[in-house]
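Deliverable D5.2: sample structural annotation.
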Amino acid sequence: MKTLPETYAVPSMRGNVRLPEKIQVTVPGSKSITNRALLLAVLANGTSTLRGALFSDDSRHFLESVKDLGFSAEADEEAARITVTGLGGTVPKKEASIYVGSAGTAARFLTAYLGISEGTYHLDASAQMRKRPMAPLLRGLEELGCTFDCEIEKDCFPFTLRSRGFQKDRVTVDIDRSSQFLSALLISSALAPRGFTVEATGSHGMAYVDMTRKMMAQFGVTCKRTEDGDAPLFTTAPGQSYQALDYQIEPDASGAAYFYALCPLLNIPVQVNHVHFDSLQGDVEFIRILERLGCTAKDLPEGILLLPPESGTFQGITANMHACSDQAITLAAIAPFAQGPTKITGIGHIRFQESDRIAAMETELRRMGIRCETDESSLTIWPGKPKPCLIKTYDDHRMAMGFTLTGLRSEGIVIDDPACCRKTFENYFEVLEKALQIMI
């Protein structure tokens, strides 16, 4: 990966620039699947090999935390492979300190795992992660007998936890701000000696919860969902255990989405290798949204091929993006070029992610001179001509990757702090330039 400058001037594809006849790319492995597979391997019996793993700031922090807890883990970044030896749920060290960086999955998943183990552990995170929600998970773990000493602010990193195993076999967790709270508890629920039930209040991110349950089953543990009134119940029966696997990780559907968005934006066919509609990842649903813009998708053996609208232009739509909210920024970034307004709904929870993403999108669209309006959980964008400006990214990888798309059909769009993409897709700009056959 080449070193990125402090800013990235997006190369405009307007005018007489010659585009390739078709874009065909390979994207890194899924962050969501990599980090889930890493914890599942830690909880399994024996040595697992994770192939096609993503190597990024988030996954490296997760891997280092696993090592700091005493597990044997080796990474081969060139081969995109991680080897982990699990001990059936036992943590080798009863006292340890770990640093999770800005990785939300590492922060939530490891807190839950350590919170139902037996020991004393100190956890810290980046300034960004210190601001992100943790309270619902901490409340649930306190119900189970864990205690927390927060050093700076209540219910936030850094803190020391003292755990005594499962003191109860049922807990309730609020997932309105993050489904990771529920996924974290479900993965660790297999260690409960008498079985375990989680009642979830809220409905955010159920596509990611479904991914978690499917991956648990792949590693040998079934978690059943039932309904109790409006609140779903997730029950893991006793007597189950995770087994080591040779596990292939899917390409990152979130990373693929930026390239699929080039299809309507630049009126060019796009294929991302090995991405299919039967993916574990909810963000594959973004391709269905692009179909509503006028594109046509074909799921071929090599990967989904997306064809541009026959008219050469794409429509503005209203889209509830609750199931693929990481791509709200992607749709917002191309919305100024639509034939009509675009309204993105169901995204109130993204105010509590790496940045307040609704506020960030509104601010940067207006900085470009694009009319937009927001409320607590939606954003409406009207067509317009973006003017040259510096796009602030708020240390948020999705702001950097998403608004790069806007610059491809504009003049003078510059991305501030492009290196924040290291969180999930550290060579994004290289892959983009190669796909578009840009020589810079």
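Annotation notes: The longest helix spans residues 31-43. The chain has two domains: 7-26+251-435, 31-234.
The annotation will be released with the project's public dataset once the embargo ends.
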